[in-house]
Amino acid sequence: MSFFGNKRLIIVLVGLVLLITIVGFTSRERSKLSWPEMFLKDTFSVVQGFFYRPAQAVSGFFQGIGDAYDVYEENRALKAGMDQYARMTAELHDLQAENERLRSALQAKDNLVKSYDLRFAEVVARNPDTWNNTITIDKGLKHGIKKDMAVMTAKGLIGRVQSVANFSSTVELLTSYERRNHISAYIQVKLQAANGTTSYQTVSGVIEEYDPQERLLIMRKIPWGQKIEAKQQVVSSGLGGVIPRNLPIGYIVRVEPDDYGLTQTAYIQPSADFSQLNEVMVVERSFTFTPTGELVPNQQTQTPPAPPAAGGGQ
């Protein structure tokens, strides 16, 4: 029993010595491997290559899916950010435009508040079929709006109140094809004296229609012989008793003689932008006409302006 135990111990010791010898021999740097080493290396390389390529392919497939999902999520986040940026930019531009319009309206109110009562309103409806004819505003009888009151933007006159409900009103525009009411107006002619002083003369006429092709108002019945030039301002005369005086209407583009050569016809570029009507002002003049032609001040005003000369139009 002791012999067999010693024999096993001797075998284990001999094996360890051989193993250490082989490890020491193979761990040295050599120019050429032994054939068992080459056999084992070739065998392991084939086996590793057989399993490595499919494993690498599977790993690359799942890695590609993960990368594609990451790219999709990043792309979706970027699109959401771009959409939000576009919305914020549009809102900012809208607020800037609204701010400019309100500033202009307040400035116009400061210029007109001494002579007229102004009521601010917003355009709530504009039918594409009657785009050039009418608009609907959010003020009516309950807000003091009455028929035939003038309506303007900060830049100039746009029309008059055609009909009134309790909480809304319909405004007939100057560009309306169906407009039958003519507007009496003045052309402000600048005169330069020999001594260098400047004065202004008013030349009367009547705005009768709108040319949709050229987008110009047409003013007729201008006395012959009056020197009318381009860029001269046109304002309301107030002679008709409906449209107040000195509301800006537009600027002269050109002047032509009428068919009979007795008067002149002027083509006017409107001051107001009729394509962008958002906030408007309803103008109540400081006095009204009685059936006998007498001027009566409104309750809101204390001192009526001087009576205008007799004439037709609004």
From TrEMBL:
Residues 291-314 are annotated as: Disordered. Keywords: Cell shape, Coiled coil. Residues 123-284 form the Rod shape-determining protein MreC beta-barrel core domain. The keyword Kinase does not apply. GO terms for biological process: regulation of cell shape. Residues 78-112 form a coiled coil. GO terms for cellular component: plasma membrane. Gene3D superfamilies: Rod shape-determining protein MreC, domain 1, Rod shape-determining protein MreC, domain 2. InterPro entries: Cell/Rod_1 (IPR042177), Cell/Rod_MreC_2 (IPR042175), MreC (IPR007221), MreC_beta-barrel_core (IPR055342). It comes from the Bacteria. Pfam families: MreC. The keyword Nucleotidyltransferase does not apply. NCBIfam families: mreC. Belongs to the MreC family. Involved in formation and maintenance of cell shape. This is Cell shape-determining protein MreC. It comes from Brevibacillus borstelensis AK1.
